[in-house]
Specification:
- The chain is mainly β.
- Helices cover about 15% and strands about 55% of the residues.
- The chain contains one helix and eight strands; from the N terminus they run H-E-E-E-E-E-E-E-E.
- The chain has one helix at about 1-25, and strands at about 55-70, 75-90, 95-105, 110-120, 130-140, 145-160, 165-175, 180-190.
Length: about 190
């Protein structure tokens, strides 16, 4: 069900972009038309969020499954892991991009590493610097064994300039064999 919703949202975004691109190409001969400015696939280089952006990011992360566990001495604790990672994003238009990421999370007794990718849909709010986004995808986790996972989430980016921003997001991950978990990230992004 989650996959169907994500695919439906992505299809709507791509379809809307195609319709807008066709409308703009039909009106490009009229130089007085206000629609000849920024579009999904063509953006002003002075805008904070542009088409054809490449970004590198680094982040701190915390993850947990929200359940309490008993240890041998009768204490209750939450299975929380902390760590961090980095990623690479490319937005081929102002609103749709792809992301590749890698991260590692550790707690008192084990470490999990992961490599994955996501489709990212963002909605910049004018020139305020704010851009909420949603994402979904999957990858592979490596611990005592390897397993695939699917994930999806939402976040907010604040861009100070065209080349530097901070972001925070949360996601739900669903590994093929392990328990589901949530993860929060807070990081910085350098855009080229």
């Amino acid at each position: 069900m989650k996959s169907i919703l994500l695919i439906s949202a992505a299809t709507l975004f791509v379809g809307s972009a195609a319709v807008q691109a066709l409308d703009l190409s039909a009106t490009e001969q009229d130089n007085n038309n206000p629609l000849n400015g920024s579009s999904w696939f063509n953006s002003d280089p002075n805008e904070l969020f542009r088409a054809n952006e490449l970004s590198l990011d680094a982040f701190a992360a915390v993850a947990g499954d929200g359940r309490r566990h008993d240890d041998d001495f009768g204490y209750h604790h939450h299975d929380v892991r902390g760590g961090g990672g980095g990623g690479l994003e490319y937005f081929f238009c102002r609103y749709i991009g792809i992301e590749a990421e890698s991260f590692a999370l550790a707690n008192h007794d084990s470490t999990v590493s992961a490599v994955g990718g996501n489709l990212v849909l963002r909605l910049p709010i004018g020139q305020t610097g704010f851009s909420p986004y949603i994402f979904g995808g999957g990858g592979s986790e490596f611990a005592s064994r390897s397993e695939g996972y699917g994930d999806g989430g939402a976040g907010l980016e604040f861009r100070f300039s065209r080349s530097f921003s901070i972001f925070g997001d949360g996601r739900f991950a669903d590994p093929t064999h392990s328990r589901n978990y949530g993860m929060g990230r807070l990081g910085v992004k350098f855009t080229f």
